[in-house]
Amino acid sequence: MSSLAIHHQGRALAIAEAPLTQQFLTLTLGQELYALPIEHIREIIEFGGLTEIPMMPEFLRGVINLRGAVVPVVDLSVRFGRQRTAIGRRTCIVIVEVEQEGAAQMLGIIVDAVNEVLAVDANQVETRPAFGARIRADFIAGILNQNEQFVIVLDIRQVLSVEEICELVGMASLEK
């Protein structure tokens, strides 16, 4: 990050500049486009098998073995209150890293397809709308207008809130 020197009352002050561009991975769920900030993405893997865990909420599809680490896999479509993702030729698992109490937690998310990485000016990300989206408002970090099409930028910390997922897992085990 660069800094600018600004003189205020004879003293030089350094002000950090905000990044000029941000990168997002775009992905498809059903007919809608979503974007995730690239800094949370660790890798993208082809959908293979996963091990289902009994008595888990519907959105927690199971776990995978990622080089010896057990990684929970969330069906993003179900997390948004929709139908379970039908596994197709382009279905993949995006491995993301979210922070919980200062520690990094790896989670996988099932998506219909991964499209491209977009580099956009930071000022192109518009604030989230108060209405009109078909997902919870707190899941939306902003909106991109890309080639005459709106792309919803997800707030991955909210979508994959480890605390909320743990609460829902606890409630699911009580219900079954």
As a percent range, the share of strand residues is over 45%
Largest sheet: spatial strand order: 10-3-4-12-11
Report low-confidence residues grouped into runs of 5 or more: 1-8, 10-15, 172-176
Task: Report the CATH superfamily.
Answer: CheA-289, Domain 4
Number of strands: 12
What does this structure look like?
- This protein has 176 residues and is mostly beta strands.
- The protein has one domain (20-175): Beta Barrel (OB fold (Dihydrolipoamide Acetyltransferase, E2P)), CATH 2.40.50.180.
- The protein has three helices and twelve strands; from the N terminus they run E-E-E-E-E-E-E-H-E-E-E-E-E-H-H.
- It has helices at 76-79, 156-159, 162-175, and strands at residues 3-8, 11-16, 21-29, 32-37, 41-46, 60-66, 69-75, 92-100, 103-111, 113-121, 140-146, 149-154.
- It has a five-stranded mixed sheet. A five-stranded mixed sheet has the order 5-8-9-7-6. Strands 1-2 form a two-stranded antiparallel ribbon.
- A hairpin with a 2-residue loop joins strand 11 (140-146) and strand 12.
- The longest helix is centred in the last third of the chain and has 14 residues, at 162-175.
- The chain is globular.
